[in-house]
Design a protein that fits this description.
Strand order of the largest sheet: 3-2-1-4-5
Number of helices: 7
Low-confidence stretches: none
Radius of gyration: 19 Å
Distance between the termini: 15 Å
CATH architecture of the largest domain: 2-Layer Sandwich
Order of helices and strands: EEEHEHEHEEEHHEHEH
Number of strands: 10
Largest sheet: 5 strands, mixed
C-alpha cells in the first residue's frame, strides 16, 4: 500500500510517500506560498514525476498540520489528483493519553511524533523536534503525555539576532567546529547549536530526576533536520529519527483504516 503523507509545518510542507513502512521519497514546499487547489496539484504532479510515481498508484493519504487554514486546499487537491480522501490527523484519532494538558492547544506535529516514538521505543520518553520552534514532549512510564516545552528554534534564533540587532549578520545554521567561537559568526552559531545541546541535556536530567528515574531510563529521541548539528554536542545518548513524523503518519493511517474495516 502506497500512502501519501503530508506534514504541514510553520515553514515547510513535507511531502512523503511510504509503502509498507519504507520511505519511497520525500520532498518539500514552502508553507507561506499562497497555495490554491491548482497550484498544489501541480506541485504534487511535479513531485510524482520527479520520483517516477503515478497518482493512480496512491492508495491513501493523511495530513498532519499546524496551519489549519491550508487544510481544505490540500484535501481538495489530493482528492482531485489521486481520488483518495485524505485523513486529517486530529486529537480524536491520535491515541495519546494525557495528564493535565489542554489537548485543544497541543500541536498535531507533537502528537504524531509521540505516537511514532512510543510505538518504537515504549515509555518513558522525551522527544525533541528541532524545527522552526524547538518542541519537547515527555511521556511518563505509564505512557501518558505529561507536558513539555517550546522554545525558539535554532534558525529562528539566528534570524532574531540579525533582525533585532544593528551589527549581527544574517546566518544559516551550521555545524560548530569547536566549543568556543573565535569570531562573531562562530560565536552566534555555537551559541544556538551548542546552547541547544546544553539545554536538551540539562532538561533531560532535570525531568528524569523529577520522575525519580535515572537519566538513561528516560529515552531521548531527536527529530528534525537541525538535530544533526546538535547531536555531536550532547552529553546524553540520543536516538535520531529523521522521519519520525512521517513514520507516525503512516502508523496513524494504518490504524485509522483498520478501525474502519
Amino acid at each position: 500500500m502506497k500512502t501519501l503523507l503530508i506534514d504541514v509545518g510553520n515553514s515547510n510542507i513535507v511531502i512523503g510517500l511510504f509503502e509498507d513502512g519504507k520511505k519511497l521519497f520525500q520532498d518539500r514546499a514552502e508553507t507561506r506560498i499562497k497555495w490554491d487547489q491548482l497550484s498544489f496539484m501541480n506541485k504534487l504532479k511535479s513531485v510524482f514525476h520527479d520520483n517516477n510515481v503515478s497518482a493512480d498508484e496512491i492508495n491513501g493519504a493523511i495530513i498532519s498540520s499546524v496551519v489549519p487554514d491550508i487544510n481544505p486546499i490540500l484535501v481538495s487537491a489530493i482528492r482531485r489528483l489521486t481520488h483518495c480522501k485524505p485523513i486529517i490527523a486530529n486529537k480524536n484519532n491520535v491515541d495519546i493519553p494525557v495528564k493535565n494538558y489542554d489537548m485543544s492547544l497541543l500541536g498535531m506535529d507533537r502528537m504524531v511524533d509521540m505516537l511514532a516514538a512510543k510505538e518504537k521505543y515504549g515509555s518513558p520518553l522525551m522527544i525533541y523536534d528541532l524545527g522552526t520552534c524547538t518542541t519537547m514532549s515527555t511521556i511518563d512510564s505509564k505512557g501518558f503525555f505529561i507536558g513539555g516545552m517550546i522554545s525558539p528554534g535554532i534558525q529562528l534564533s539566528l534570524d532574531a539576532e540579525a533582525e533585532k540587532t544593528a551589527q549581527l549578520p544574517e546566518l544559516m545554521a551550521d555545524a560548530p567546529e569547536k566549543l568556543l567561537g573565535d569570531d562573531t559568526v562562530s560565536c552566534m552559531i555555537n551559541g544556538v547549536v551548542i546552547g541547544t545541546a546544553a539545554m536538551i541535556d540539562g532538561i533531560h536530567e532535570r525531568v528524569a530526576k523529577e520522575m525519580e528515574i535515572e537519566p538513561e531510563k528516560l529515552t531521548l529521541v531527536l527529530t528534525g533536520g537541525l538535530s544533526k548539528l546538535v547531536i555531536p554536542w550532547l552529553k546524553n545518548k540520543a536516538n535520531f529519527e529523521p522521519d519520525l513524523l512521517l513514520n507516525g503518519l503512516e502508523l496513524l493511517y494504518l490504524k485509522s483504516t483498520m478501525d474502519k474495516s
